Amino acid sequence: MTISFTFARMIKLSDKLFQGFIPGLALLLLLQAMMFSSCRKEEDFDTSPSLKLSFSEDSVLFDTVFSTLGSATRILMVYNSSKKPVLISAAGLEKGPESQFRLNVDGISSHLANDIEIGAEDSIYVFVKVRVDPTSQNSPLVVTDRLFFETNGNLQTVDLVAWGQDAHYIVANKFVEGLPPYRIVASGNQTVTWSNDKPFLIYGYAVVDSLGVLNIEKGCRIHFHNNSGLWVYRFGSLRVNGTLDERVVFQGDRLEESYQDVSGQWDRIWLNEGSVDNVINYAVIKNGFIGLQLETLLSSEGNKLMLSNTVIHNMSGWGIFTRFYRLEAWNCEISGCGLDNVYLSTGGDYDFRHCTMGNYWSGTVRKTPAVLISNFYKNEYTQTLYTGDLKRAFFGNCIIYGNLEDEFITAKEEGVMFNYRLDHCLVKTAHVSDSLVSCIRNQDPLFLDIEKHDYTLKESSPARGAGSVEIATPFPNDLPGNPRLPSPDLGAYQFMPR
Q1: CB atoms < 10 A from the CB of 277, how many?
Q2: I need a surface site. Which of 254, 288, 337, 432 has the fewest CB within 10 A?
């Protein structure tokens, strides 16, 4: 039989057993016990490289930080299922002493503990504490770290997540194989409204189910954790009701200054065909992977998205990616994307008016144009080719420009409808077609400051006064609310003297 004591336990034992005895004898017995406990042979431990610990939780969530004045403690159980003891060579916090979490592993309080023993078919307690100030606007929305455990060369981790600000937290509670973790925020025949009293933080996917409706009021701030998104399932509806003065903002949950221009912080807004028209008005969608993925799941297109007065910027993938969808967009800026700003695939019906698609992406080497339209989509993994009628792709009074040689490309599958038209647009392209009507080709629009992502026009821009009055008449004001008639400029911004 093996006896194992920690030093703290031994001190307590010696005080209890040897009270009244001479100090020398107590010290001698104490040293003997410690020597006995340390003489376990290394081969008594399970040293198999395939050994894995198990945990009571896959992640530790601190969802009561606000009710405990910014401080909360959670317990994680670590199990050894082996019939032999195991030795955890290292257990600690990935961020080390910089972490906002504090750790106690089997009685050892430190950001890093070494040589932690778990008996055969036994377990230990790990206490994790976090301290944040939820009332501080400078606190991040989410405080994260990871616990790591190294055993026999194997590294295992457990996520630590705490809320850093007072907000509406939407945390995934459904886990279905083949789908991202999600939570239904509007079920069938239910209408839910998000107000702007405090931010929303989505951890996983927020799902609007079939026949559900999600209204998002003006001024709302929607933050997504890494790999999180919003999914409006088929026949669900989304209505984003921003205003010129109080836009709705969709972005990541990292609020530090260094993350303000970092793309790919969250996943996407995914809309399927709606029971009624989806509406997004006066929104800012930034710093994700895909701004809007518009995808019809059934054979018919269903209703459409009405997208207006909206900026989609700095997406590591696409700004807008569609498959067989219906979209009307006006007064929109779609800019700075790692792939296409706008990729219209597998046909559909599209109408863009007074939109600016500028792409000067510098994060990686961009090989795709600002705008790509096609009547097919090929799955590169399965090599399956999907086709659909491109009934219409209309661009009126738009700017399509960037730092590639060709920023407007079409891809056509024969035998399938393919109709498109650019009318009074400034476009950078080698493409020559009768479908380009009254367009300015390959002239720099002279955006005010592409380094600062300012796509307004300089006074000398060739886009000034080049728009069609007929196209502009339904949209008399530009994206910032300036009047564009009687002499409309191209794009989302009317030139205004500084």
Answers
A1: 15
A2: 432
C-alpha 106/C-alpha 103 separation (Å) is 10
- Distance, CA of 318 to chain centre: 13
- Residue 63: C-alpha distances to residues 58, 103, 161, 228, 387 (Å): 15, 18, 9, 18, 46
297 contacts 272 by C-beta, under 8 angstroms: yes
Rg of the Cα trace of the chain? 30
State the first-to-last Cα distance of the chain, in angstroms, to the nearest integer. 85
Question: What sign has the CA pseudo-torsion 374, 378, 380, 381?
Answer: positive
Dist CA 130 CA 330 (whole Å): 46
Contacts for 376 with CB less than 8 Å, ≥ 6 apart = 345, 346, 347, 385, 386, 387, 388, 411, 413, 416
What pLDDT digit, counting tens, does each position of 318-360 carry? 999 999 999 999 999 999 999 999 999 999 999 999 999 999 9
Collapsed DSSP state (helix, strand, coil) of residue 125: strand
Report the alpha-carbon distance of residue 340 to residue 338 in Å, rounded.
7
Rounded Cα gap, residues 447 and 462, in angstroms:
10
Strand partners, 470: none
The answer to whether residues 128 and 103 touch, using CB atoms and an 8 Å cutoff, is: yes
Dist CA 252 CA 281 (whole Å):
20
- What's the chain's length in residues? 498
Per residue in 417-470, pLDDT (tens digit) is 999 999 999 999 998 889 999 999 999 999 999 999 999 999 999 999 999 999
pTM: 0.79
The amino acid present at 100, given as its one-letter code, is: Q
CA–CA separation, 382 vs 316, rounded Å?
Answer: 24
Widest Cα–Cα separation across the chain:
106
What CA–CA distance (Å, rounded) separates 202 from 429? 40
How far is Cα 288 from Cα 427, in angstroms, rounded to an integer?
Answer: 26
